[in-house]
Design brief:
This protein has about 250 residues and is an alpha/beta fold. It has a single domain, classed as 3-Layer(aba) Sandwich (Rossmann fold), CATH 3.40.50. The chain has eleven helices and seven strands. The protein has a seven-stranded parallel beta sheet with strand order 3-2-1-4-5-6-7, with helices on both faces. The longest helix is centred in the middle third of the chain and has 23 residues. It is globular, with a radius of gyration of 17 Å. The mean pLDDT is about 95.
Length: about 250
């Protein structure tokens, strides 16, 4: 039976993906702050280390899939934490568990965001993330805004996927790595943003050509596709699942 590890499995997209995979007969190892097989705080180095150790023990050293869903949004007041969780938490799992995917020629999917392309991001945060310099990325985020921190972290994880996926360590070892970039999806993260006096109006007025917010099940379906054999020729792809917002705002960039 296929074993898939999912961070952020207790709510939102992660919970919907868990439900879908379990319905299809997969075994899920959830990683979250609560209600998961592995309880860990991926916003801290200690929590990431604990998560890696626990996944290795629970999976008997072999995974068929890995999805990094855990993240927080721009309305969170601790802006450095956004970078620590959304980029460094995701990267730690992808880098630290890659070898477990090798024996099964498994697949990994990182959850990015359409904010990585259509929202202002900070190049210094992105560069610090990709260089593995968490203190510098956090310090830079502290002086900007939650939206800059969020968009930058999500852009950095998409860039990591693009850079790493075709490498000898990933594609060369038979391991596929891709990303999904959701838009506005009805999750606790979006609900918190809608209640924010600054971000709420911006979210409500944001153009979505298909006419409304997405659902966790829709993003779970896109992620399940990236995990499965039907996407076997995709490598380093960033799949936008955002109701057409990225296409509307950047029609000639792809």
């Amino acid at each position: 039976m296929a074993v898939i590890a999912i961070s952020g499995s207790a709510s939102g997209i992660g919970a919907a993906l868990r439900q879908r995979l379990e319905r299809d007969g997969r075994t899920v190892l959830g990683i979250d702050l609560r209600d998961a097989e592995i309880t860990a705080d991926l916003g801290t180095p200690e929590g990431r280390a604990a998560a890696l150790t626990a996944v290795r023990a629970a999976s008997d050293g072999r995974l068929d899939g890995l999805v990094t869903c855990a993240g927080i949004g721009p309305q969170v007041s601790d802006w450095p934490l956004i970078v620590s969780l959304d980029y460094f938490g995701s990267h730690a799992l992808l880098a630290g568990l890659r070898d477990l995917l090798g024996p099964s020629r498994g697949t990994a999917v990182a959850v990015s965001s359409n904010s990585s392309t259509i929202s202002p991001f900070d190049g210094e945060i992105v560069a610090a993330c990709l260089a593995g310099d968490e203190p510098r990325a956090r310090e830079r985020a502290r002086g900007l805004s939650g939206q800059h921190a969020y968009a930058s972290a999500k852009r950095a994880i998409a860039c990591f996927v693009r850079r790493a996926a075709p490498s000898a360590e990933w594609a060369g070892a038979g391991i596929r790595l891709n990303a999904v970039a959701p838009g506005a999806v009805v999750t606790p993260l979006l609900d918190a943003g809608l209640q924010d006096p600054v971000y709420g109006p911006a979210i409500r007025n944001f153009p979505i050509p298909l006419g409304g917010f997405g659902t966790p099940a829709q993003i779970a379906a896109a992620t399940a596709f990236l995990l499965g054999e039907e996407s076997s020729f995709l490598c380093g792809s960033v799949l936008f699942a955002d109701g057409g917002s990225d296409a509307l705002l950047r029609p000639d960039q792809y």
